[in-house]
Amino acid sequence: MNDAEKHFGEKLKFQIDPTGLEHAIKEGKGDCVIVDVRGRNAYKDGHIPGAIDIPIEELSGRMGALPKDKTIYIYCYNIVCFRAPKAAYALAQNGFEHVVEVFGGYEEWQRRGHPVDK
Question: What is the pLDDT of residues 29-49, one digit of tens each?
């Protein structure tokens, strides 16, 4: 296995697209924790159903409220937003082993016509 194959294989273990997240929610039976790291106003304007509002600026102080035994799905605004990968990295550094970035973020979730809560 070459370096590129290893890199992308590992990367894909920690990313999911919105449709994959929707399936995980339906099949997870409560094993999914979805975290919106965009910020309070964005969350109020609309978010993925069931998502917890933890702005990235507050993440370090609120990690203790997140379960380490469940998969945590992190999302931000869109494909070019770096809040989700930064948050996922911070969680991984603090002992969270099951952290997944929702690739494309909220924008892609909406674009694909998935439900939204306000």
Answer: 668 899 999 999 999 999 999
Calpha distance 111→108 (Å, rounded): 5
Q: List pLDDT tens digits, range 7-18.
A: 888 888 899 999
- In contact, 53 and 59? CB cutoff 8 Å: no
- Rounded Cα distance between 16 and 95, Å, is 20
Q: For the chain, list the domains and their CATH numbers.
A: 3-111 (3.40.250.10)
Cite the active site residues: 76
Q: Are 15 and 100 in contact (CB under 8 A)?
A: yes
CA atoms of 55 and 10, how far apart (whole Å)? 26
* CA dihedral of residues 57, 63, 67, 70 (deg, nearest 10): 50
How far apart (Å, rounded) are the C-alpha atoms in residues 92 and 2?
25
